[in-house]
What we know:
This protein has about 70 residues and is an all-alpha fold. The chain has helices at about 1-10, 25-30, 35-70. It has one domain (about 1-70).
Amino acid sequence: MSKSKSRVSSSGSLLKIPRDDMDPDDLFVKHNISEIKLIQQRLRCSDADAKQEELRLMVGYVKAYFFTVSII
Length: 72
């Protein structure tokens, strides 16, 4: 029973794992496969969100540039 409790508590802290500290070997030692899949899914989601925000900023800069050029 204590094993399942530790797994549940560790899965609750999966979001708190700093991305820089993610050594694949350590992840496989500390987490089971379903937890690792959850980590992977959350990383992919956060990557997609970051790229989407970057694209929004780039589009904003391009619009501002063309607006400035069209005034000149």
